[in-house]
Design goal:
The structure is a single chain. The protein is built from seven helices and no strands. With 177 residues, it is mostly helical. Helix 2 runs antiparallel to helix 3 and helix 4 packs antiparallel against helix 5. The chain is globular.
Amino acid sequence: QSQRRTLTWAGVAVVLTAFDGSVLVLALPAIANDFNARTPALSNLGSVLAIGALGSLPLATLADRFGRRRAIALGVLGFSIANFASGFATSLNELAVFRLVAVCFEALVAGVATALIVEEAPPPRRGQAVSVLALLAGLGTGVTVIVYPILAPHWRWLFLAGGVGAFIAPVIWLRLP
């Protein structure tokens, strides 16, 4: 029961992470158009995102000290707020800052959720549990892939929708063992 609950709520966090993390990739042409951005500026945006992933490393060490549940819930809250703010970006530089913060928390949640699943799953089921988590990440990306063409070119709406994680983060905090 506890292992299923762990997989369920860590899985919800991973779905949200994958959804939010895939919006920029799909919406990049519309974003470039809205901000009149050329290829070098978009390349710099990609570099900033790589730095954001590095920012998750010190946060992940805090998960060892203060607990994985807290790190996952606060990570979901952090990237959800950053994604919601991304929907209001007025420039490519502003979007880059919001995305930097979001990617930092998204990488944190993905890594800590995986570590939690590996720790909590019984040894014979670990591979299966991690596979389920990977499939859930694919589900989050799949939702973005399905929804964005319906909303295109309104990329901001997807970032705003990513804010829903701010309401789910407290539930993850309470429900994740």
